[in-house]
Design brief:
Distance between the termini: 46 Å
CATH class: Alpha Beta
Oligomer: single chain
InterPro entries: Epimerase_deHydtase, NAD(P)-bd_dom_sf
Number of strands: 9
Number of helices: 9
Largest sheet: 7 strands, parallel
Structural class: alpha/beta
Strand order of the largest sheet: 3-2-1-4-5-6-9
Family: Belongs to the NAD(P)-dependent epimerase/dehydratase family.
Radius of gyration: 18 Å
Strand content: 15-25%
Domain NAD-dependent epimerase/dehydratase: 5-174
Helix content: 25-40%
Keywords: NAD, Oxidoreductase
Organism: Thalassospira mesophila
């Protein structure tokens, strides 16, 4: 790959990929609305507001693939999400179409299906049940990705990311955790695959108590290596046993599902 664009490069996931994908492409083009470290070897740093359509078209120009992490990554007011997540994602896809980009990794979220109970095992055909306005924005992004594949043959792997940190931060993350190493290998697998169509996957390591299945996406060739079991004893000692009647425990979305409407 000659040039890979990573939006949202100033965020936690963007920083993981900036370091982990060094050498994967001839050039990593790194973009965010926030400040970033200066460009290193084989890097380009471009500050860009994704709601600015003309700027996004310039950003996408000459790119072979896109890792779209950009946008607001937490629950927020609808008007803010409208600009960053709805309009911003549309601008990325339309620019990708105009500049003949072949494949996008869209960072969806477990919050697109957060109102499913933890007792359910989900796959790509499970009903969308967003737990927040943020989750609604991710459902929109998945639908947009599907449309651009069916209409324009622009491939996307929509990854419903769980929790990507060096180690799980609480008991819920024993199920949702994805290691940074597994995340990096997932991105490589997505862009190495001969074809993807529009595929929905779950961004989760092979944990023991997992709620999501990627069996349908075996053809992508991703082989995650890590498991949260290595951290279970420490996490369970640090955090008290969960109350099974708490909505944050009943539903997969955790605290997002338990909270009221953001704008109330």
């Amino acid at each position: 790959m000659k040039r890979l664009l990573i939006t949202g490069a100033a965020g936690n996931l963007g920083k993981i990929l900036r370091e982990g994908l060094k050498g994967y492409a001839d050039v990593l083009r790194l973009s965010d609305i926030a400040d970033m470290d200066a460009a290193g070897p084989n890097e380009e740093v471009v500050k860009c507001d994704l709601s600015d359509r003309a700027a996004v078209h310039e950003l996408v120009k000459d790119c072979d693939g896109i890792v779209h992490l950009g946008g607001i990554s937490i629950e927020a007011a609808f008007d803010d999400l409208l600009q960053a997540n709805f309009l911003g994602t549309y601008n990325i896809y339309e620019a990708a179409r105009k500049h003949s980009v072949k494949r996008i990794m869209f960072a969806s979220s477990n919050h697109a299906i957060g109102f499913h109970k933890r007792t359910e095992m989900l796959d790509e055909k499970s009903e969308l049940r967003p737990d927040s306005l943020y989750g609604v924005a991710k459902c929109y992004g998945e639908a947009l990705a599907s449309y651009y594949y069916d209409k324009f043959d622009l491939e996307t792997v929509s990854v419903r990311i769980g929790s990507c940190f060096p180690e799980p931060k609480d008991r819920r993350m024993l199920s949702t955790w994805m290691s940074p190493r597994d995340f990096i290998s997932l991105i490589e697998a997505i862009f190495n695959a001969p074809m993807t169509g529009h595929t929905v996957m779950y961004g989760v390591s092979p944990n023991k108590a997992v709620w999501w299945s990627n069996d349908h996406a075996a053809y992508i060739g991703w082989e995650p290596k890590d498991s949260s079991e290595a951290f279970r004893a420490d996490v369970e000692a640090k955090f008290p046993e969960e109350n099974r009647r708490d909505p944050a425990v009943i539903y997969q979305g955790g605290a997002f599902a338990a909270r009221g409407h953001f704008e109330d």
